[in-house]
Design goal:
β1 and β2 form a beta hairpin. The model has no long low-confidence stretch (mean pLDDT 83). Strands 1-2-3 form a 3-stranded antiparallel β-sheet. 7% of the residues are buried. With 178 residues, the chain is mostly helical. It folds into 2 domains: 61 residues; 87 residues.
Length: 178
């Protein structure tokens, strides 16, 4: 005999147990029960629908789990073709650091630059207040740089870049020793 997909041996046993307990009438044992949902036929239809929904959810979960584990080999992590030459060219042309922004340190009120090192999750705060890089700017210019992200003049930006370059090189030497 062929059973429906939801009908596992444990579930069939549960239906038989419910039927023998209720004798085909009220599932909760009420004599002459007027509530239609307590009738055995109506009650087991609801149970069967719940079992079908559980099976659907389980199959969907297993399908998603299987899709995550499948490795296509041709496509990369974000759905692009895997090309090692392009990756090597990109890595070779990456800058030594990315200047994320300029601001003021909240602890000692000194000017700092936030620098991100490429291909890592490392961010460095570089003190750019030394050597008086911002002293030749007016107070209004300094405020605009911090508040609105305005770019400083070229000579000040050159000094900031050299300080950031030194900090990144120091970080790489310390990292190489460790």
């Amino acid at each position: 005999m062929k059973y429906p997909q939801w009908s596992t041996p444990q579930r069939r046993d549960k239906l038989v147990e419910t039927f023998t307990r209720s004798r085909g009438f009220c599932v909760f044992g009420h004599p002459m029960c007027p509530i239609e949902e307590h009738d055995y036929e109506v009650f087991i239809e609801g149970i069967i629908e719940e079992w079908k929904a559980e099976d659907r959810d389980r199959r969907l979960y297993e399908w998603k789990l299987e899709q995550r584990t499948i490795h296509t080999g041709e496509k990369g992590r974000w759905g692009r073709r895997f090309d090692p030459v392009t990756r090597d060219v990109f890595m070779a042309n990456q800058p030594e650091y990315y200047l994320v922004g300029l601001g003021v340190d909240a602890l000692n009120f000194k000017r700092v630059a936030l620098v991100r090192i490429p291909s890592t999750q490392i961010h460095l705060f570089v003190d750019v207040s030394r050597a008086g890089t911002f002293r030749r700017l007016s107070k209004n210019q300094r405020r605009k740089i911090v508040r609105y992200g305005a770019s400083p003049p070229a000579d000040v930006m050159g000094e900031i870049r050299s300080l950031c370059q030194e900090a990144v090189e120091d970080w790489w030497t310390v990292k190489a020793k460790a």
